[in-house]
Amino acid sequence: MLRQIAANPFYELRVDTEQNLIYLSLYGFWGGRANVPEYLNDCKKAASCMRPGFRILVDMTQIKTVSSEATILHTEVQTFFMQAGMSQAAEVYRSQDPVVRHQLNCIKQTTGIVKQVKAFTDRTAAQTWLMQTTPQTQKVGILNSLQTWFK
Predict the structure, then answer these.
(1) What does each C-alpha distance from 141 to 10, 21, 53, 74, 128 come to in angstroms?
(2) What is the CATH number for 95?
(3) If we measure between CA atoms, which residue out of 110, 87, 97 comes closest to residue 59?
(4) Cβ contacts of residue 39 below 8 Å, gap of 6+?
């Protein structure tokens, strides 16, 4: 069941506690913290609803370029999500928007989140990818490998 955490002209944040999944949609031009004063706190609220190993689907198809101040904020949020137990994220971009994609790739490099994130241009494909490799199936795969190894 989806529960809305926040919605405003700049972002929408929803959680699905059963699937251990956060849905984050970003909109418009982010000039700085003044535009989104509760963004980090809202992300903390969303993460507090999740179990360790949660996943995030980020829809960036409607975001415009990001200011340097907003870049710092996005970096803080990504760092927080990693520390809060995020296992993987899928980011959905407009295929014709290389500027936003480059800006957000730089943020991923800064936070070290690159290995946990995969980029998509189709939201359905992104969600399918997230649901195929859940933390639970990863644990089962590891346990099966260990059992085979020690036989």
Answers:
(1) 39, 21, 15, 33, 19
(2) 3.30.750.24
(3) 97
(4) 10, 11, 33, 73, 77
> In terms of pTM, does the model score above 0.85?
no
Distance in angstroms (rounded) separating the CA atoms of residues 92 and 97: 11
What is the per-residue pLDDT across 115-144, written as a single tens digit (0 to 9) for each? Answer: 567 778 889 999 999 888 655 544 444 444
> Does pLDDT of 102 surpass 80?
no
Q: How many domains does the chain have?
A: 1
Domain of 49 in residue numbering reads as: 2-149
> In 31-104, where do the E strands start and end?
55-66, 88-92
138: which 2 tokens? 């990863």
CA–chain centroid gap for 126, Å, is: 11
Mark residue 20 as left, alpha or beta (left: phi above 0; alpha: psi -120 to 50; beta: remaining): left
Calculate the dihedral angle through the C-alpha atoms of 116, 53, 141, 147, rounding to the nearest 10 degrees. Answer: 130
- Please state, as a whole number, how many other Cβ atoms lie within 10 Å of the Cβ of residue 44: 15
Using an 8 Å Cβ cutoff, are 11 and 24 in contact?
Answer: yes
